[in-house]
Amino acid sequence: MEPSTIIANIGYLISIACFILGIKRLGKVKTARSANMLSASAMAIAVISQLVELGAIDYQFIIAGVLLGSLIGAIFAIKVQMTAMPQLVAIFNGFGGLASTLVGLSLFTSAWFALTGSESAALGGLAIQGTAGLSTAITLILSIVIGSITFTGSIMAFLKLSDTFGRQFGNPILLPARHVLNALIAIGVVASSYYWIASAADPSMSINMAIAITVLTLLLGFLLVIPIGGADMPVVISLLNSYSGLAAAAAGFALGSNVLIVSGSLVGASGLILTSIMCKAMNRSLANVMFGGFGGDAAVSSGDKDQGYANVKSSDPEEAAMDFDGIQSVVIVPGYGLAVAQGQNAVKEFADQLKAKGVQVRYAIHPVAGRMPGHMNVLLAESSVPYDELYEMDAINNDFQATDIAVVVGANDVVNPAAKDDESSPLYGMPVLNVDESRMVFVIKRSLSPGFAGVKNELFERDNTRMIYGDAKKVLEEMTSHLNED
Amino acid sequence: MTGELLIGLYIFILSIFLGFELIAKVPPTLHTPLMSGSNAISGITILGALTCVNSESPIANYIGCAAITLAIINVVGGFLVTDRMLKMFRK
User: Fold this and answer.
1) Do A387 and B40 touch (CB under 8 A)?
2) If you measure CA to CA, which chain B residue comes closest to A59?
3) Which residue of A has its CA nearest to B58?
């Protein structure tokens, strides 16, 4: 082993240890920030080690790519608003996936060129033909396949989250015979892979197959995410996050790089755990989220049910503010509507005003509130809400009975009591926040329109519920100013 | 090569289990930073991309350069935005 290889491998080992520590320490708010920096250092060590191993090569492409990419990445990171975090993570997942695809394609092109283009057939590390190359070929294909699906799937998720094509695009879009189409594409990918490997001796065949696999899997990524509704995005983003890690791990197999395998699988595991937490929070299986086309179906079936509401009591900010006189405890339940209205500062000021009057204020966070895991927590952190005022569902659900007023801001399905007691409801079985048990409930909402699940919310008809119609931010600001007047 | 693959598989399986153990304990408050942070780590593909710009095929080099760009967007953007978020969390 050359000295540079030994030095590089020591560097890889250090970087793996730092990545593991970095992820471990990300589990506590106190240590999280330094943990993130530790992971960033681990990445720097890994990159430097790789450069040491490569030795003196032509650096023009490396310098160009690193400068351009760093600039774009920094602009993204500095400019993004906290309400748009789901979109940002989606698009970054996509970039990671595409990078893995391109690594696979570049390795392939390089080997193909060596076989056909020039006399130097001996190309470091990679030979497509022969049994020795079989595992390399398979992992190469996997890196292209997972990477491409991650890329276009993430682009689709990004488009759905960012309302680029209007609200309607966020809903499930069900193409005819979509399952058959997806299955045919999957068969096409497997067939192309087989011919690629089998046709090692025929370079023109193998390059055609490589192109076919890339195009088919890019298409598949789009098709897999297009039927999934906006409310299911927390699951989709988590899953794509996992894929972006697995794509890196696959590239690691193709290159024989252990750092890539370890880091990629850590990310893969992380995404899978979040995916499963999100699915549990909606009481749905992953298959149901991915292939169920939820939202569209429910909206149709609820069409024949009576969507009309009876006995809904409404209130206005001024009247509502009076109800907050002399109470002791308030629980605020934020949802995606708060993010849409950019109302995170308004909610903080409202809470501060209540606290000034001696009211205990807490926030109840449903695991799938918002569009990605932890979306509400980040939003409220942005407006300086202390994180110890934020309670997980299980930690606060028994306290609603002793709560004077629950304020639901832009949340819907996650507070629907039908999930607890109406077996015919599509939401039945989903764990929800027990806001209906508090003495009084205010629901701040634009209208009575159903949530993403397309289901009527029985909470709005309860005796102790008052609806306050309007934009979450405006309503909260008005309520705060009326609280001030007393 | 087969031996290398086998070792790779051992590492892969062990890392997945390690990942499950490490991440299962992360509280929901930190789920978004965890996701953007792990997203930055998935930019580790950069190492693969760095090996892709030294080929005799110019096309392979261009593709490799694009891969470097994309991976580093992930790395720089991911770590920066995670830091930005974590800075906001306070008691």
Assistant:
1) no
2) B53
3) A110
**Average per-residue pLDDT for chain A:** 87
Question: Are the Cβ atoms of A23 and B19 closer than 8 angstroms?
Answer: yes
* Residue A28 near residue A72 (C-beta atoms within 8 A): no
Q: How many residues make up chain A in this entry?
A: 486
Strand partners, A362: A331
Q: A315 versus A218: which is more confidently predicted? A: A218
Active site (annotated) includes residue A413 = yes
How many Å lie between the alpha carbon of B3 and the closest alpha carbon of chain A? 10
Contacts of A277 in chain B (CB under 8 A): 28, 31
Cβ of B22 and A85 within 8 Å? no
Q: Which of B2, B60, B68 has the CB atom closest to A109's CB atom?
A: B60
Would you state the pLDDT for residue A110? Answer: 84
Convert the pLDDT of each residue in A22-45 to its tens digit.
999 999 999 999 999 999 999 999
How far is CA A257 from each of CA A45, A91, A327, B36, rounded to the nearest angstrom? 15, 26, 61, 23
Nearest CB among B22, B40, B54 relative to A39 is that of B40
Give Cα A152 distance to the centre of its chain. Answer: 14
Collapse the DSSP code of A126 into the 3-class scheme (helix H, G, I; strand E, B; otherwise coil) and give the result: coil
Residues of A in contact with B57 (CB under 8 A): 109-110, 112-114, 117
* Distance to chain B for A182, nearest Cα, Å: 27
- Residue A159: count of CB within 10 angstroms of its CB: 19
In terms of pLDDT, which residue wins out, A130 or B81? B81
3-state SS assignment for residue A397: coil
Per-residue pLDDT tens over the stretch A295-315: 433 333 333 344 578 788 888
From A232, A306, A325, A413, the catalytic residue: A413
* CA-to-CA dists, residue A478 to A319, A357, A463, angstroms: 11, 17, 24
Question: How, if at all, do strands A405-409 and A440-445 pair?
Answer: parallel
- The tokens describing A11, both together, are 């560097």
> Which residues of chain A make contact with B15, given a CB cutoff of 8 A?
261-262, 265-266, 269
Domain residue spans of chain A: 1-79, 82-291, 317-485
Q: Give the long-range contacts of residues A283-288, CB within 8 A, separation 24 or more.
A: A283/A419, A283/A427, A283/A429, A283/A430, A283/A431, A284/A430, A286/A235, A286/A239
In the DSSP assignment, the letter for residue A214 is: H
- CB spacing of A260 vs B44 below 8 angstroms: yes
Residue A439 has pLDDT above 60, yes or no: yes
Please, are residues A133 and B1 in contact by the beta-carbon 8 Å criterion?
Answer: yes
Q: Is the dihedral of CA A117, A121, A125, A128 positive or negative?
A: positive
pLDDT over 90 (residue A448)? no
Tokens found for residue A481:
């100013």
Reported as a single tens digit per residue, the pLDDT across B15-51 is 999 999 999 889 989 999 999 999 999 999 999 999 9
Nearest CB to A96; choose among B16, B37, B71: B71
Predicted complex ipTM = 0.96
CATH superfamily of the domain spanning A317-485: TPP-binding domain (3.40.50.1220)
**CB within 8 Å: B57 and A93:** no
Enumerate residues 6+ apart whose C-beta is below 8 A from A206: A112, A128, A196, A199, A200
